[in-house]
C-alpha cells in the first residue's frame, strides 16, 4: 500500500509543467488543478482543465493534451522531444509546447516543474 502512495505522488508531480515561448513572450504553468497563462501585455488568466489525454499506445510521458474547461478550441499540447530551444538562450528543454487559446496559437518549450 505504501508504494501506491509513492506512485500517486510521482504521477501528481509529473503533471506540473512550465511552458514558455518568445516573440511574443508568454508562459503557462500547469499545476495540479489549473493552468495559468501569462504574457507581458495581458493579465494572468487561470483555466481549469480536464484529465490530460495521452497518445494511444505510447508512454504517458511522451505526449499530454490538456483541454481547458469551458473554453472551446483551447488546449495545451506538451510533447517530449530530444531538445527544444526557446531561440533566446542556450537552454535546451525536454518538451515542446503548443498552447491554443481560442484563435491564438503560442509555440514554445516546456519542462517539468
What does this protein look like?
- With 113 residues, the chain is mainly beta.
- The protein is 12% helix and 54% strand.
- It contains 1 helix and 9 strands.
- The protein has one helix spanning 2-14; strands at residues 17-21, 26-30, 34-39, 42-48, 53-54, 63-67, 74-85, 92-101, 104-112.
- A 9-stranded antiparallel β-sheet has the order 4-3-2-1-9-8-7-6-5, with no helix packed on it.
- The longest helix has 13 residues, at 2-14.
- The chain starts with a helix and ends with a strand.
- The model is unreliable at 1-14 (pLDDT under 50).
Taking strands numbered 1, 2, ... along the chain, how are they ordered across the largest sheet?
A: 4-3-2-1-9-8-7-6-5
Helix residue percentage: 10-25%
User: Which H/E pattern describes the elements?
Assistant: HEEEEEEEEE
Number of helices: 1
From the N-terminal CA to the C-terminal CA, the straight-line distance is 27 Å
Shape: globular
Number of beta-strand segments: 9
Multimeric organization: single chain
Rg from alpha-carbon coordinates: 14 Å
The average pLDDT value, as a whole number, equals 85
Unreliable residue runs = 1-14
Determine the strand fraction and express it as a percent band.
Answer: over 45%
Helix-and-strand structural type? mainly beta
Tell me briefly what this model is:
The longest helix has 13 residues, at 2-14. The chain starts with a helix and ends with a strand. Mean pLDDT is 85; it is low at 1-14.
